[in-house]
Fold:
Amino acid sequence: MTVTDAPVLPHGVTEQALEIVSRLPREERIRLISGASMWYSEALDSEGVASFMMTDGPHGLRKQNGDGDHGGLHESVPATCFPTASALAATWDLDLLEQVGHALGLEARTEEIGVLLGPGLNIKRHPAGGRNFEYMSEDPLLAGRAAAALVRGIQAEGVGACLKHYAVNNQETNRMGLDTIVDERTLREIYLTGFEIAVREAQPWTVMSAYNLVNGEHAGESRKLLTEILRDDWGFDGLVMTDWIATFDRAVGVHAGLDLEMPSSTGAFDARVSAAIDAGELSESDLDTAAARVIALALRVAAERASRHPAAHVDAMHADHHALARRAAAAGSVLLTNDGILPLAPQGSIALIGAFAEAPRHQGGGSSLVQTTRLDTALEAMRARLGDGATLTYAPGYDAGTGEATDAQLQEALAAADGADTVVLMVGLPTSFESEGYDRDHLDVPASHVRLIQAITARHDRVVVTLSNGAPVDMPWADAPNAILESYLGGQASGSAVVDVLFGDAEPGGRLAESFPVAVTDLPSNHDFANDPRLVQYREGPYVGYRFHDTFGVPARFAFGHGLSYTTFELGAPKVTGRGAARKVTVPVTNTGDRAGSTVVQVYVHDPVSTLHRPVQELKGFAKVTLEPGQSADAVVQLDERSFAVYDAADGAWKVEAGDYELRVGLSSTEIVATKSIRLTSDDVVTEAARPASAIATASEFARLIGRPIPASRPAFPLHYDSVIGDLDQTWLGGRVKAVLTAQIGKMLPVGDDTPDEVRTTMEAFITNMPLRAIAMASEGKVSFAQLDTLLTVLNATGLKAKRAARGEAGLT
Ligand code: BGC
Structure:
C-alpha cells in the first residue's frame, strides 16, 4: 500500500476550483470575491463559471427582477410568505420545518436562485429586538435544530441556504457599528451553539457574517469566528459572505475567512486588497482560498441546476405551498390561556373585532418582506366557515396601519360586541411597531387595542383575544379574556389559519420558543439594551429568557415551552437508558382527551453541583408527539455529552463534570412532570471562574469574566468609517453633507405617499444607520475611499474647530 501525502484542501475548497484559481491573475481573483451587483456573484466566462443569484429570505422568496434594495422597498416576484421564524420555531416540529424548507427551496429553484438568504437564528436576548420576528428562539438548542431542519429542506431542493447573522446580532440599534461585549463562555454556550448545531447537522452551503462587532472585532473580520470556530472546530465546508454593505476592511476579512463581499462595491476595495498583499499584510493564499470558495459554490449551484427541473406548474406549486403555510401557521399558534371557550362552535352570533381581521399583520418589515401570492383574511375565512350557521358582525375598532382609533370606532366595536354571544378580538402590533432596522422601545400594544380589550372584557363574558405580533408584548390584561391565542406573524395564510384554530378545525400546535416576561424591566438584559449606541455589554451572561426566570425565581407571564392544547395528555414515568452521557429518555405519552392533538415533551438538564455558576436547567432535547384520542406513543429524546457540558473558557474546551444530574421532563420550563437522576463519571476538571453575585454582573465582575477592563464605548467623534449618517449632525458641515446624502439616497428610493408605514420607517432607519464607509462602497466608483478619507479629515477638522470654539478656546475659529 502506498500512502500519499495529498495536500489538505481548506474547508469549502475543491481541487477543481483551486485549479481554476491557479490560472487567474490577481485582479481576477480579487474581482471574484466581491459580488457583481446587488444580488449576483461575478461570472468567470473564461473558465465557464456562471454567476449565481443570492436573495432573501428566511420565510419566503424576495427575488427582485428590477431595482434591488435590502429594505423590502422595490417590487419582488410573488412568492409564498410562510410564517416568520418566531412562529416556525414555536411549532417545535422539525418534520414540518423541513417541509417548509423544501417549499422555499423549490420556489427558489424555480426562480433560478443559487442561495436563499436564510434562515436567521440569532438568540432573542431581549424581547424588544427589532428583528426578533425573524429569529427563532431564546434557546440555542431549539434555534439550532429548527434552523437545521429548514436548511435540510432548502438544500434538498438543490438550493443553498445561508445561516445568518453570524454572530451575536441581537439588536438593531446601530447594528452596523455596535460592539457587543460578551464573555467567552456565554458566547459559546448561548450565542454560538445554535449555529454550531445547524452547521454540524445540516452543513449549510453558506453563512452570512453579522453587521456588528464582537468583542472589538467586526464579525466579518474575526478569524476566530470565521475560521477557527466555524471551520476548524465545527467543520463548516461552505462559503461565508458579508451581510449587505457590512464590509469594513476587506483585506482583514479575507484573512479572517470572509470569502464573498455582498453586494458589489464596484471594486472600491480591490486596490486595497492588492496593496495589502504587496505589503505582506495579507497572504496570496488567503485570497486564493476565498476565490476558490466562490468558484466552488458557483460550480455547485450550476451542477445542481443542471440536474434538476423547476416546478412544472407554478400556480399548482403556489396552491400547495399556500396550504402548507396555513398548516404551519396553525402549528405555530400558541394557545396561551383558555377557560374552555375554545374551540368555538360555529353557531350563535359572533362579533369579530379588530382591523387585523381585514388587513392581516402577517409578516415583518425589512429585507424579509415577501410579495405574497395570496393573502387570506380572517374576516373572509370566518364568513366562509360560518356560512349560514351563525351571524357574524365585524367592526375594525382601530386603524390597522397606525393602531390608532377614533371614539366612533370604539363605540362601533362595543356595539358589535354587545349584540353578540361571543367576541373574537384581534389585536397585536401594527407593522410600524417592529421591523428590521430598529428596536422597539417598549413592549406595549397600541393604547387603542388595550382600550378595546378592557372595555369589551368589562361588559362581556365570552371574549377571545388573538395576537398578531412577531415578539412578546406586555399583557397586564392577560387575565381578562376567556382565551388568548398567540398567532405570531403567521404568513399569507394566517387569516385562514387563525379561523381554523378558533373553530378547532386545526389544533393550536405551538409552544412558546421564548418567554413572555411580566415586565421587561424584570430582565437582566434590559440593564444594557440599546441604551448606548456603540457598545453593549452582555452582563447577564447566560441568563437569557427562561435561564433567567427559572434560575432567579422571577416568573415569566408565559413560560418558555408553554402552550395549551384542545385535548389532554398524560405522561408516564420516563425511562432512561444508555451509558455515560449518551442517554436516551423515553416518555410514554397518552392522549386522554377526546380530540386529536399534539404535545411537546421537553427534557431539561439540571446540574445540582457545579464548579461554574449555571442556569438551574437548560433544554437539551424535545419531541413533538401527535396522537388520536386514546392513542399512546413514546416521546424519545437522545442526550449526548453536550447535554451536560459547560464551556471551560480558561481551557478553551467543553467539559462534563462527574457527578449527579437531574433530567427534568416537562411540558414547559415551569411545568416539570417527572424527574430522573443519573450519575456520570468523568475525568474532566473545570477551571474555577468568576461567579457574579446576581443576574447582572457588576462592572468589576464583568471585567473579570471578559478577562480585561470593560472597553469604553467608541466615541462618536471624530467620525470614522463606522460612524453612521445620523452621526454627521455633530458638526455643521456634517449636517450639510447629511442633507445632501439623504436627498441623494431619497431620489434613488421610490418612497411616496402610498408607501406602507413599515417600509417608510424601515427605510428611514436604514438611511440614518448607514455607515459612512458605504458612501464609497455604494457610489459606483464616484467616491473612492481616498476621497472619503479626505471628507472625514475635513469634517473632523472643522468639527474640532467648532467644538473648541464652543468651549471658548482662544485662537481657534
Ligand atoms: C439583512 C440581511 C439580508 C440582506 C439582503 C441585510 O440588511 O441584514 O438579512 O439578507 O440585507 O437583503
Q: What stands out?
A: The mean pLDDT is 95. The chain has 21 helices and 25 strands.
